[in-house]
Amino acid sequence: MDFALPQDLVDYLAELDRFIAAEIKPLEAADDNIRFFDHRREHARTDWDNDGLPRPEWEALLKEARRRADDAGHLRFAWPAEYGGKGGSNLAMAVIREHLAAKGLGLHNDLQNEHSIVGNNPFIMMFREFATAEQDARDGAKLLAGEMFTAFGLTEPNHGSDATHMETRAVRQERDGQPGWLLNGEKMWTTGMHVATHVMVFARTAGADGDAKGITCFIVPADAPGVKIEEWLWTFNMPTDHPRVSFTEVWLPEDSYWGEVDRGLGLGQSFVHQNRIRQAASSLGAAVYCIEESVRYARERKPFGKPLSDNQAIQWPLVELATQAEMLRLLIRKTAWQMDQMDHKAVASQLSDKVSMCNYWANRLVCEAADRAMQVHGGIGYSRHKPFEHIYRHHRRYRITEGAEEIQMRKVAAFLFGYMGPRKAEFA
């Protein structure tokens, strides 16, 4: 059994480091762009008088960094080769995400809005796996060219983790002799609506509440009549691009969906499984950053005339965190590798529990590591002059989004006790 990373991946990490040093760090240092990452970061990023949305200059900087990364061949690393990418594996993406997050805050990788020089775009794989030939011909080129940006509308004001109980409905309706659908409902946390051209709206089209079947994924133009942003939801970590959106009597042509009618939930599962394993790797990287910064500070700080690191009260909590990080790294990489060994659609039924283990534990670990880093650093750790409060505030949401940790544990239990997954036959 060989735990060594493939040499080509090790070489690629070094290539990314050289690119960051040559292209991204100079851009980060120019024109006081460091204000987006130092103690001024939350204010610099947030247009407080415009619903708390991201400031245009902040998003323009991110766009320029992505352009440079794309020109260098990094941004689309994970995209399938037929879509202009390098076909990066789940294992490679997990290693890269950890590597970049472990560098701390910076223009190379800012997880508050999923910005990275190696892009995380789960829509691409989802579209490839579920879109029909007709849907690919209609939307594929626009999606790949960045001309079609889709927000994700699954959660609702009254339904979060219980997505199969959603109240959003779509019924067939003909208009002017054309077959179509009439859509009504509300969605929460439809991130990116301020720049989206379309919204993926999951709506019940058949079946009863709680049924997995009977949900369809509609592709709704963001400017369609009846689509309205009701409010921008301010969060623990600002700026916000997360609105509550209503869909009132929105009429859509018959073919305004991805995948199949009544089988849209699979698209949502595809999205979250890709996101969960990559999110876990990023949380691990951020946790490692907090641990390592705490170790360095404890060695340098000398209260009462001796290094802070001499005290076991400082050592032992960091030992616990470092041990968890080592174990978690192995689980994440093994799970990502296993994902690469099976059909993309099989992950939900065969490996979903391991993905959930990685996700909920990593998101919990990074919060603990950030909190410990604040404690080790004392007053300066609590201040915004250190990045730990930002890391905590950002990663705290991951314990809720993409499935709350209770939902993740519930999934693990379902597989463990054979209510679903590979062991179901064993307990039948």
Briefly, what is this?
The chain is α+β, with helices and mostly antiparallel strands and 428 residues long. It has 13 helices and twelve strands. The protein folds into three domains: 7-125, Butyryl-Coa Dehydrogenase, subunit A, domain 1 (Orthogonal Bundle), CATH 1.10.540; 150-258, Butyryl-CoA Dehydrogenase, subunit A, domain 2 (Beta Barrel); 266-416, Butyryl-CoA Dehydrogenase, subunit A, domain 3 (Up-down Bundle).
Structural class: alpha+beta
CATH topology (level 3) name of the largest domain: Butyryl-CoA Dehydrogenase, subunit A, domain 3
What overall form do the CA principal axes indicate? Answer: globular
Q: N-to-C SSE series? A: HHEEHHEEHHEEEEEEEEHHHHHHH
DSSP helical segment count: 13
Strand order of the largest sheet: 5-8-9-12
Q: Do you know the CATH architecture of the largest domain? A: Up-down Bundle
Largest sheet geometry: 4 strands, mixed
How many strands?
Answer: 12
At the fourth level of CATH, the homologous superfamily of the largest domain is Butyryl-CoA Dehydrogenase, subunit A, domain 3
Radius of gyration: 22 Å
Layout of helices and strands:
Layout: H1 7-29, H2 41-45, E1 46-47, E2 53-54, H3 56-71, H4 90-101, E3 109-110, E4 115-116, H5 122-130, H6 133-144, E5 150-153, E6 169-172, E7 180-187, E8 198-204, E9 215-221, E10 227-232, E11 243-253, E12 257-258, H7 265-300, H8 312-340, H9 347-350, H10 352-377, H11 379-382, H12 388-396, H13 405-416
Parallel strand pairs: 5-8
Antiparallel strand pairs: 1-2, 3-4, 6-7, 7-11, 8-9, 9-12, 10-11
Helix pairs in contact: 1-3, 4-7, 4-8, 5-7, 7-8, 7-10, 8-10, 10-12, 10-13
